[in-house]
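Page 37, continued from 36.
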């Protein structure tokens, strides 16, 4: 499928994927990837309808404005830009997690709930 016939949402997902793959690189080119992967690989792994790995909320990959691609292990903490380190999240959950590891984020959520 060429660029002219690819659905608009896949083009927007491709943009998000380029950004994910270039994290931690000032030149904004893909880096720290052990095996090449594409939008098709992301859709195959998660499906068009998936769940946020942090909140469990349903996410529709055909609506790119409503989700983020997150480094499960943040690139700032040594995480790679591989597909295996990619998590789909709600915008709010990804912003809240920031550069924390999952156990740190869960501890913070527990502290907030105990308050």
């Amino acid at each position: 499928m060429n660029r002219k016939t690819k659905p608009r949402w896949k083009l927007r997902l491709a943009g998000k994927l380029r950004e994910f793959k270039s994290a931690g690189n000032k030149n904004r080119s893909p880096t720290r990837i052990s095996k090449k992967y594409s939008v098709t690989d992301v859709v195959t792994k998660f499906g068009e309808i998936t769940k946020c790995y942090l909140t469990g909320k349903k996410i529709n990959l055909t609506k790119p404005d409503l989700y983020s691609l997150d480094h499960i292990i943040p690139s700032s903490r040594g995480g790679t830009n591989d597909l295996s380190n990619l998590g789909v999240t709600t915008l709010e959950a990804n912003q809240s997690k920031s550069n924390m590891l999952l156990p740190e984020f869960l501890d913070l959520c527990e502290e907030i709930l105990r308050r």
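The first helix runs from residue 8 to 21. Flag for discussion at group meeting. The longest strand covers residues 67-71.
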